[in-house]
Phage-related protein
Amino acid sequence: MIDAKPLTFCGSSLDDLREFPLSARRDAGYQLDQVQRGRDPDDWKPMNTIGQGVREIRIRDANGAFRIIYLAKLADAVYVLHCFQKKTPKTSKADLDLATKRYRELKEVKP
């Protein structure tokens, strides 16, 4: 059994996650638990445009599409960079820019 890595939320990502509807929040918690235990979430894709090793968890439910952008490749924790509700087929530039900014800030502290 692999020990679960702790979750570290960057910026407002925890508050943003708490704004998800209950069903999406529950799914997000389960998916993040999978990542903490070294497993892949059920639906994800790499986000190499943000940074090396960055991934996006994709959650769909009756309330819409929700995303969690995270970095799990560092040994000490799973870093949640950004959580948001997706409103268009393409991820908005503002969401990508915010995740990229938080990734760069993290890399300055944890090279």
In short: The first helix runs from residue 13 to 18. The mean pLDDT is 94. Residues 30 and 41 are 9 Å apart (CA to CA).
